[in-house]
Amino acid sequence: MYMARHVHAQSVHDEVLPTNSDCELFIGGFWGQPVNTATSFAFVVVGAIILARSAGSRRVLIFGLLAIGTGVGSVISHGPAPAWGEIVHDAPLVGILAFVAVDAISDLSKRELTWVWWVIPTVLALAVSEIGEPARIAAQTSITVLAIGASLLRFVKRPATRRTILTAGLLLGAGALIGTLSRSGMPLCNPDSLLQGHAIWHVMAAAAIWRLTPVVGTRGAIAALPLRRQARD
Question: Does the keyword Transmembrane helix apply (predicted)?
Fold first, then answer.
């Protein structure tokens, strides 16, 4: 789910320039990049729905909170964009990736790994990111690869999860492709447009999180059953 670094916009002779990599013009104020900021709330909405339908599952509750955190961090980063916006943007995003990886590993290993197993890698990735941009990309890419790899292995080993994981993966992959092709300097970038590829990435990534939710916290045979049915089982 990692997307390229968000860098503050600069104003030259009263002309507002687009932020590095995100394409959309930065207009200042709370909304900053209006379309990217508005679509960041998709994560918040999805997270709130996940919480409402968690059926008492602690892992699903955490997943929902991380989704909300991802949205809040994205709003801050694309909107007012304070100096500390980058860490607020990255922390829940890296956290949700690490959480997905650990949840899949717990299922496959038949051993419940505690929160330490996803929190510590998240903290380490964020710490390494402070070294510089190459280190940031390497650290966050490593967490992303781990999450994808663990989910693919779960896909293979847990047939009941396949449709859910496949759909979530397709949403995420398509969104990432559109977002990449819409970065500054890329063919689909139009800084003045209301149709922003990075914004589409937000919506599709949020949809992927929602789609993956039925798998979160499930183990073995009951994986991918509806949340309320899992609670009864």
Answer: yes
Helix-strand-coil split of the chain, %, nearest 5: 65, 5, 30
Q: What is the pLDDT of residues 157-199, one digit of tens each?
A: 999 999 999 999 999 999 999 999 999 999 999 999 999 999 9
State phi, psi for 195 to the nearest 5 degrees.
Answer: -100, 95
The Cα–Cα gap between 126 and 16 comes to 30
58 band by pLDDT with thresholds 50, 70 and 90: very high
Type of residue found at 15 = E
Residue-wise pLDDT for 101-113, tens only, equals: 999 999 999 999 9
Q: Around 26, how many Cα atoms within 13 Å sit in the side-chain half-sphere? A: 25
Nearest alpha-carbon partner for 3 in 177, 147, 129: 177
DSSP lists the bridge partners of residue 65 as none
- 123-132's contacts with Cβ under 8 Å and 24+ in sequence apart are 125/94, 125/98, 126/87, 126/90, 126/91, 126/94, 129/90
- Tell the residue number behind the tokens 């990449």, with chain if given: 180
What DSSP state is assigned to residue 177?
Answer: H
Q: What is the pTM of this model?
A: 0.87
Q: 16-53: b or e for each residue (b if 16 or more CB lie within 10 Å)?
A: eebbbbbbbbbeeeebbbbbbbbbbbbbbebbeebbeb
